[in-house]
C-alpha cells in the first residue's frame, strides 16, 4: 500500500514538474513572440536621396511603400541620409527607438558605416543593398539589375550607328562593374564592333559632374547612345539636349522624345514583398544573400520608344526568354577582361558569390576614359 502511494506521489510530482517546465517554456516563447509581433508592424527605411526624386530614390520608396501597405505595416522613413556623414547611425537609433523591427539600408556603403550598430542590436533585422558586410542579423538583398543591363545592352548594340556607347557611372565597385560588364556583353551579343566608354563620377549623385561627363562622351568621343549608373537622370537630359539616344535606369521617365529608348526597371514592390514575407516568417536571420531577377518577374525593360523597331524588340525578347530558362546565361563561357586576362573559361560559369562581391574588373570592349 505504501509502495503504491509512493509511486502515485512520484507520478504526480513528475507530472507537476513537467507542467511547470512546459509553462515556463510557453511563457518564454510567448514573451519572445510578443516582442517580435510588437516590432513586426514597423519597418525602417534609410536612403541617400529624396524619396520623391525620380530614379533610385523614388523607385525604392514607392516599392517598399506599396509592399508595406499590402501587409499593413507602418513605414518609418529617413531620406537625405548621406554615406559616411554620421547621419546613418543617428537614423538607425531613431528608428529603433520608434519601434522598427527591421531596417532597410538602401545605399551601398551604409552597412560598412554602421557595422558596430548592427552588432549592438542583434534582435533587429538589417537589410542592405550591397554585399560588403554580413552578420546573423544583416542580410544582403538586391535585384539582379545586371540582367536588365544585359537586355539594354542588346538594344544599345542594335541601335548605335557610330559604334561608340557612353556609360556615365558612379564608381568601380562590384555592383557597378557587374552592370557595366553585363551591358557590354549584351552589346557584343549583337554588335561585336561596338565600344563601351565609361566615365567615373565618383558619387551616386553629383549632377554637374554627370552632365559634364555625358557631354564629353558625346562631343569628344562621338557616342551616339548613352546610359548611366547614377541615382538621377542627368545623363538623359544631356542626351536629349544633343539629340542622342539614351537608356535610363531605375525609373519610368516622362517628358522626353523618342531618343529615350527604354529604362532598366526593377519591380521594387515585388522585391520588397519577397523580403518582408521572409522577415515576417522569421526567415531573414538564416539568409545571407537574397537575389531576385528576371525569373521572379522583378527585372525587365520599360515600354520602348517609337524609334525601337519591332525587330529590335523581338531580339531583346529572345534574350529575355533565354534568361528565364537559364539564370547563368550572361557570365558564362570565355570572358576576357579589358586587360586580356581570362576571367571565365569555356563551358564555365561565374557563380553568384563572385558576381556579388568580387567583380572589380571590366570586360574586353569596355574602356575607361577621362
Apparent shape: globular
pLDDT < 50 runs, ≥5 residues: 21-39
Mean pLDDT across the residues is: 90
Number of domains: 2
- Give the termini distance in whole angstroms: 100 Å
Structural class: alpha/beta
- The number of strands is 15
Helix content: 40-55%
| Radius of gyration, taken over Cα atoms and rounded to an integer in Å | 25 Å
Order of helices and strands: HEHEHEHHEEHEHEHEHEEHEEHEEHE
CATH class of the largest domain: Alpha Beta
For the biggest β-sheet, the strand order reads: 12-10-9-8-6-7-15
SS strand fraction: 15-25%
Secondary structure layout:
Elements: H1 2-40, E1 42-47, H2 56-71, E2 74-78, H3 87-97, E3 102-106, H4 110-113, H5 115-120, E4 125-128, E5 138-143, H6 145-159, E6 164-169, H7 174-190, E7 195-200, H8 207-219, E8 225-229, H9 234-242, E9 245-249, E10 260-266, H10 268-280, E11 289-292, E12 299-301, H11 310-325, E13 335-336, E14 342-344, H12 352-357, E15 366-368
Parallel strand pairs: 1-2, 1-3, 3-4, 4-5, 5-11, 6-7, 6-8, 7-15, 8-9, 9-10
Antiparallel strand pairs: 10-12, 13-14
Helix pairs in contact: 2-10, 6-7, 6-11, 8-9
Question: What does it look like?
Answer:
The protein is of the alpha/beta class and 370 residues long. It has 2 domains: 39-143, Rossmann fold (3-Layer(aba) Sandwich), CATH 3.40.50.2300; 145-266 and 299-368, Rossmann fold (3-Layer(aba) Sandwich). The chain has helices at residues 2-40, 56-71, 87-97, 110-113, 115-120, 145-159, 174-190, 207-219, 234-242, 268-280, 310-325, 352-357; strands spanning 42-47, 74-78, 102-106, 125-128, 138-143, 164-169, 195-200, 225-229, 245-249, 260-266, 289-292, 299-301, 335-336, 342-344, 366-368. The strands form 3 sheets. Strands 12-10-9-8-6-7-15 form a 7-stranded mixed beta sheet, sandwiched between helices. Helix 2 (56-71) links the parallel strand 1 and strand 2 (74-78). Helix 2 (56-71) packs across helix 10 (268-280), helix 6 runs parallel beside helix 7 (174-190) and helix 8 (207-219) runs parallel beside helix 9 (234-242). The longest helix has 39 residues, at 2-40. The radius of gyration is 25 Å and the shape is globular. The model is unreliable at 21-39 (pLDDT under 50).
